[in-house]
Amino acid sequence: MQITPPFGRLITAMVTPFTKSGDIDWSGVEKIASHLVSIGHDGIAVNGTTGEAPTTSDEEKDQIVKVVRKVVGDKIKIIAGAGNNETSHSVEQAKRAAKAGADGLLVVTPYYNKPPQAGIEAHFKAMADATDIPVMMYDIPGRTGVEIESDTIVKLTEHKNIVALKDAKGNPAATSWVIKRSGVAVYSGDDILNLPLLSVGAVGFVSVCGHTVGGQLRAMLDSWFTGDSNKALEIHQQLLPVFTGTFRTQGAILTKAALNLMGLPGGFTRLPLVDATDAQIAQLKVDLQAGGVKLK
């Protein structure tokens, strides 16, 4: 089964760098977007979990899309997070993201409410009907409290605008069946499962570690899709310390710390996230260097 990747293969969910006072560091946004382009990305996902979207205003989200577009031009896809736990506001966010210039929408399962599958299905259909740009569903039950069940995913992929799934469910068996039944383009949303999900038919990654090891992830993808599975496995094993180390606490916290260690403007977090401690940064250095990341 050959599934076309609608947004390319390598996408990173970009952080939103803040100043110590809590403002968005717009120069930092530009520099990180430029960094991601330089290491081989096909797409950048903004206003997602790693972008601390629950803490940014609708106006800030619009501007992030516009600033990243200014940097990447038309060659790199921009997928904008649009969605929260209330459907009418999510639809408004979707329309705003499309107007700001996004190429696609990343739509998370409504969180906290724990809606039944009928509610989840209706929510995604409302989002897909809101604009003409394609939608990537985002299944991450560890954060939302409820999964998108396989039958629901298969039904939703019948919608013309729902073209992909970011899979952070941690259940490759279920994902295998979804791919077989629907042919949907699945992107791994959990870096340590990138290679396992490729093996069951995923088309690419929506990564967090792409900030630090995007070049190696590009090489893993290229190796896999040219038939060199041994090389892909070698890269996967080399990057295990980075995959584990980035998520010793919340991923945006340590990704920002990692970017700072690399001489890039990771900046600070906004509450309720807090910046990495000295001890966490010391361990992060060990993890990154074990995975081959060069630090300043």
TrEMBL record:
Pfam assignment, any one: DHDPS
Entry GO terms, CC: cytosol
SUPFAM superfamilies referenced in this protein's UniProt entry, alphabetically: Aldolase
Pathway named in the protein's UniProt entry: Amino-acid biosynthesis; L-lysine biosynthesis via DAP pathway; (S)-tetrahydrodipicolinate from L-aspartate: step 3/4
Native source organism of the sequence: freshwater metagenome
Catalyzed reactions per annotation: L-aspartate 4-semialdehyde + pyruvate = (2S,4S)-4-hydroxy-2,3,4,5-tetrahydrodipicolinate + H2O + H(+)
Any Gene Ontology biological process: lysine biosynthetic process via diaminopimelate
NCBIfam families linked to this entry: dapA
Protein name (database record): 4-hydroxy-tetrahydrodipicolinate synthase
Enzyme Commission (EC) number: 4.3.3.7
Keyword tags: Amino-acid biosynthesis, Cytoplasm, Diaminopimelate biosynthesis, Lyase, Lysine biosynthesis, Schiff base
Class of this enzyme: lyase
Keyword set includes Amino-acid biosynthesis: yes
InterPro entries recorded: Aldolase_TIM, DapA, DapA-like, Schiff_base-form_aldolases_AS
SMART domains xref list: DHDPS
HAMAP family the UniProt entry points to: DapA (MF_00418)
Entry GO MF terms: 4-hydroxy-tetrahydrodipicolinate synthase activity
Function: Catalyzes the condensation of (S)-aspartate-beta-semialdehyde [(S)-ASA] and pyruvate to 4-hydroxy-tetrahydrodipicolinate (HTPA).
